[in-house]
Amino acid sequence: MLAALFWQAGLWPDPVLVLRLRADVGTLLLLAGALLTLLALPAAAVGMHAARRRARDLEAVRAACADDRHRFLRRLDHELKNPLTAMQAGLANLAALPAGAGRDAARASVEAQVARLTRLVADLRKLAELERCPLERTHVDVGRLLAEAVELAQETPDRAVTLTLPQAPWPLPPVPGDRDLLFLACYNLLDNACKFTRPGDAIEVRAFEDGRWVVVEVADTGPGIPEEDLPHVFEELYRGENARGVEGSGLGLALVRAVAEHHGGSVAVRSRQGEGSAFTLRLPAG
After folding, report:
1. Terminus-to-terminus CA distance in the chain, angstroms?
2. What is the residue-level pLDDT of the chain in tens, covering all 286 positions?
3. 52, 123, 211, 271: which has the fewest C-beta neighbours closer than 10 Å?
4. What distance in Å separates the CA atoms of residue 279 and residue 206, rounded to the nearest whole number?
5. Number of folded domains that form the chain
6. SS3 of 265, please?
7. From residue 212, how far is each of 16, 38, 172, 185, 279 by CA, in Å?
8. Rounded to whole angstroms, how far apart are CA atoms 153 and 196?
9. Is residue 207 packed enough to be buried (19+ CB in 10 Å), middle (13-18) or exposed (0-12)?
């Protein structure tokens, strides 16, 4: 009764109007919900597409890692099988030969293969340690380090190695890093040049400052590297066509790359077949 009196006096809203307003509000809310759902659909689709793309990228990385591991194991099998086969043959000869020069030659062959396997295992250990051991950084005098590496490399017969270091206006800045590892990287580049050059070829070692970098370059006038081998020369155990008959573990340049990257640097190569090669090691200056 009271509600009727208020309605007749104009003080109570029309029930029909109230119902209509409620219906309109409900419709608006329904439309707003539908609109939000429609707006969310593209975002959800984009999210699902990005997730699928990330999954594909991850699978591609996994496949590439599996391929790299397969290639590494295949090369390792090859590098281990050759000296082991030679050792077996040498031991068979030792058993069959009487004492004398022939027996001594067979023993020397076995000892050479044992040394080769020892170097391979040592280099594999160095690679493994580089991946998990922190650097013991000191300020390394790269000029003195290169002089020591050149002196050691000059023990290779008939190899002319020259070293050029800047004197003016100032010497090379020091490089913060592990001196033993940096020596290993520089010496491996130099040793690689000595192995792949011929008597009379020139080997030049240069070092200079380039902004915040100390750059070491080892160049030679050797036979050069085939173009198809260039992308792979820093891979573990990779041996190109021109490496046949050249002694080595196949890990020297891989160690150079690992040491360079461990110090925040890089290594690269450029080469012209029949003219020579140049390896460039870049290290951050201290």
Report:
1. 94
2. 444 444 454 444 555 444 454 556 567 667 777 676 766 666 666 667 677 777 776 676 666 555 655 565 566 655 666 667 777 777 777 767 676 666 777 777 777 777 777 777 777 777 777 777 777 889 999 999 999 999 988 877 777 889 999 887 889 999 999 998 999 999 999 999 998 888 889 999 999 999 999 999 999 999 999 999 999 999 987 877 666 666 666 788 998 999 999 999 999 999 999 999 999 999 999 8
3. 211
4. 10
5. 2
6. coil
7. 82, 53, 11, 20, 19
8. 13
9. buried
Both tokens assigned to 201: 């070829």
Query: Which of 103, 133, 163 is the last residue in one of the domains?
Result: 133
- My answer on whether 54 and 71 are in the same domain is yes
Based on the domain organization, do 176 and 255 belong to the same domain?
yes
156 and 122 co-located in one domain: no
Is 87 in the same domain as 150? no
List the structure tokens of 35: 């609109």
What count of Cα atoms within 13 Å lies in the side-chain half-sphere of residue 187?
17
Owner of token pair 């090369």: 75
Domain span at residue 26 reads 1-133
Which is nearest to 248 in space by CA: 123, 99, 148? Answer: 123
